[in-house]
Amino acid sequence: MREIFEFYSRQHIQNNIGFDDFGDSLKKIDLGEFNGITRDFDIDIPKQKITEIFRATSINNGEMELEHLEKAVT
Fold first, then answer.
1. Is the pLDDT reported for residue 40 higher than 90?
2. pTM (two decimals)
3. Which CATH number characterizes residue 12's domain?
């Protein structure tokens, strides 16, 4: 699960973040990256349900860390 998370957390690295924030950005995924995981692994759930799962398990409906992803898929 960690390898999957790390792969997707690197998909959308912002260009305008500072060096100190770079490491933190690799520890989180957003809804788009979560959608990518469900798409790439052929998880057949409606997009609305995927969004609900993300919001229920993420940090303040914004980003998800590894432990939140593990909770979302169980």
1. yes
2. 0.79
3. 1.10.238
Give the lowest-confidence range in 22-26, 44-48, 67-71. Answer: 22-26
Whole-number Å distance between alpha carbons of 74 and 68: 10
Q: How many folded domains does the chain comprise? A: 1
43 contact partners, CB below 8 Å, separation of at least 6: 37, 50
Q: Helix, strand or coil for residue 38?
A: helix
- Residue 30: closest CA among 45, 48, 11, 4: 11
Q: Name the token pair of 28.
A: 């989180």
Q: Which tokens in the block code for residue 60?
A: 């303040």
Is the pLDDT confidence value at 25 over 80? no
Q: Is residue 53 within 8 Å of residue 31, measured between CB atoms?
A: no
Contact 33, 12 (CB under 8 A): yes
Q: Which domain holds residue 56?
A: 2-73
